[in-house]
Amino acid sequence: MKGTKDIMALLLWLGLSLLVSVQSSAVNNCHPGCRCEVESFGLFDSFSLTRVDCRGLGPGSTMPIPIPLDTTHLDLSSNTLGPLSDTMLAGPGYTTLVSLDLSSNHITKVSPNALSKLRYLETLDLSHNDLEILSIDCFSGLPLAEVDLSHNNFQEFDTNVFAAKVNGEPVSVDLSHNQLTSVFTTPHGKVLHIQSLNLTANQLSSVPRLAGLPLRYLNLDGNPITRIKEGAFAQLEDLVYLSISGLKELQEIEPYAFKGLQSLQVLDLSNNPKLTTLNPTVYSGLDSLQELNLSNSGVVSLPNDMLTHLPSIKSITLGQNIRCRRTQKQGQFHWQLGQVQHNEELNCNADGIVL
Ligand SMILES: *[C@@H]1O[C@H](CO)[C@@H](O)[C@H](O)[C@H]1NC(C)=O
Ligand SMILES: *[C@@H]1O[C@H](CO)[C@@H](O)[C@H](O)[C@H]1NC(C)=O
């Protein structure tokens, strides 16, 4: 009996150690300018990832760069590729790519079928290029989950470019550091599964209409927005995190501006120096809000009935280093109810904040 147990234990140990062992080995057919690495893991090395790093190959490389079959991760950044043609990413080994880095390549154009062979592509980095426009079907049939389009020259962006994605899995899109004056969604009856949209450091002068996107994260930092209008975020009922920070020109947030943001947990309004007052009705509808950041903004006080406006709030930051938290007031014996009643209040580490 004891022997069987020992053998079982040994087998279990062997199995577990095989499962967690990761082996890297060299790859034979690797382009001389690239570094190729295979990582195997799983029982009997049943899974493997081939990573190929062809950063900065220098001028004169002919595309497509030959890569090992079954390559999963390819880094082609800093290669001065220029406009992407239909053939540059069409060689053997490219069809299995899960992740592709094309950043810093002076890419001005992506030909409609340039990416069409990349049937398994989930992560695409096109940041630090010279893109102004994407053809509406250039991501057609790709199972993209993360797309980095930051540091390009987009002035307008139609989110429908993600409508032709192959599956309904959510995608995160980074459009920060462009020249965007307009982001829009042309209605077409299909749900766009964009769950995270980063619009930091663009030229937006108002909050774009994003109604209908199932967004959970939205960042509008550093845009020249002067005023946030009533209902600006209407129909973004899944939004959990909203950042509107570092808006040098933001002067006014209208009453009911955040109406409809019933899932919002974090609201960052920091570093907005021209924002000096917030009418209590601005907080209307933020029933799930837990964290509000007003640090380094012009707002220096809070209404005393803040907890009725923000029933879920846990922490508010404002000024230079002032932090207010929800605390229990000293319990008082309530004679009529015959019990100690606890009242909650907002407690700050500075005086004169709660009016
Ligand atoms: C959004 O973009 C800014 C600027 O590029 C970056 O600092 C920030 O981390 C991004 N947010 C996310 C969630 O990636
Ligand atoms: C509030 O924003 C400031 C400035 O952006 C940042 O430094 C700070 O960490 C934020 N505080 C919280 C509690 O998120």
Automatic annotation (TrEMBL):
SUPFAM superfamilies per record: L domain-like (SSF52058)
Pfam families (UniProt xref): LRR_8
InterPro entries in the cross-refs: Leu-rich_rpt, Leu-rich_rpt_typical-subtyp, LRR_dom_sf, SLRP
Signal peptide: 1-26
Database matches in PROSITE patterns: LRR
Domain of life of the organism encoding this protein: Eukaryota
Keywords, alphabetical: Leucine-rich repeat, Repeat, Signal
Cross-referenced SMART domains: LRR_TYP (SM00369)
Name by which UniProt lists this protein: LRRNT domain-containing protein
Species, as recorded: Sphaeramia orbicularis
